[in-house]
Design brief:
It is a single chain. The chain is an alpha/beta fold. Helix content is 37%, strand content 24%. The chain is built from 9 helices and 9 strands.
Length: 262
């Protein structure tokens, strides 16, 4: 099982090298326009949670092809991206060259036991949808390794897929994922590293209204920012008045903000 799962993640970085494709999946109506829409709204949330400063050092565990590096690097001192997929890191390095980004570096490594220069401390640790793919015991190992790269006031942001009521395990022959509850995640952070949950937000509202958007692709592409805001409003109205997908033991994609408990 482990070898099959390892193979899955080593090839999963095989995504487009276009800066507009980001190598991310979609969870709403599934049209390509949701890729940019998701990235736009997740970036807004990330910037709001981090509040970047020129003095900041940020490490992203599970960086993929570097989509958040491109958005964060102009506002911070240093960015380091770690990912298990060699292909994803290759694309990330190509992206920084294409965009002339000088304050970023990438490394192929496991989030559990990566190694860096311990003299460099990070103000922000961002888990990019990583912890749901490792066991509770490996999460403890991850935090034990991470401590030596943190300041006393380092904040941690975890992007995770959760279920609201009970833990759900996806365990196919090549894909294993643990969808924990929000409460479980809160307890894990406190027990493992003494961090307290300060904020939870959806990473983005899943796109609804496929029929509206698929016939307006050129308009969306031309007026991205405005289109993505309108798409969010339409999706909100759809959720409220047509179909509410947040009933029962529903799946959610969330940002969790943690700070050290004083």
């Amino acid at each position: 099982m482990k070898n099959l799962t390892d193979k899955f993640w080593k090839i999963s970085g095989k995504v487009s090298d276009s800066d507009d494709d980001f190598g991310i999946g979609v969870f709403g109506d599934g049209i390509k326009e949701e890729i940019g829409y998701r990235h736009y709204h997740e970036t807004k949330k990330i910037l709001k949670l981090i509040k970047p400063k020129k003095s900041m050092n940020i490490i992203e565990l599970g960086c993929g092809s570097g989509r958040f590096c491109k958005e964060l690097s102009p506002f911070i001192n240093r960015y380091v991206g770690i990912d298990y997929s060699p292909k994803a890191i290759e694309l990330a390095k190509e992206m920084v060259i294409r965009n002339n980004i000088k304050n970023a570096e990438f490394k192929v490594a496991s989030a559990i036991d990566f190694e860096l220069d311990e003299s460099v401390k990070f103000d922000v640790v961002y888990f990019g949808c990583v912890l749901q793919y490792i066991s509770d015991d490996d999460i403890k190992r991850t935090f034990n390794n991470l401590k030596k790269y943190m300041n006393s006031d380092t904040i941690i942001i975890e992007r995770d897929s959760t279920y609201n009521r009970t833990r759900y395990l996806s365990d196919s022959i090549i894909y294993k994922c643990t969808y924990r509850t929000r409460k479980e995640i809160e307890v894990i952070f406190y027990d493992c590293i003494g961090y307290k949950l300060c904020r939870v937000e959806k990473s983005y509202r899943f796109l609804k209204g496929n029929d509206i958007f698929k016939y307006n692709k050129n308009i969306i592409k031309r007026f991205k920012k405005y289109s993505y805001e309108i798409m969010n409003i339409i999706s909100l109205l759809y959720d409220k008045f047509i179909y509410n997908s947040e009933e029962g033991n529903y799946n959610s994609h969330d940002f969790f903000l943690f700070k050290k408990q004083n």
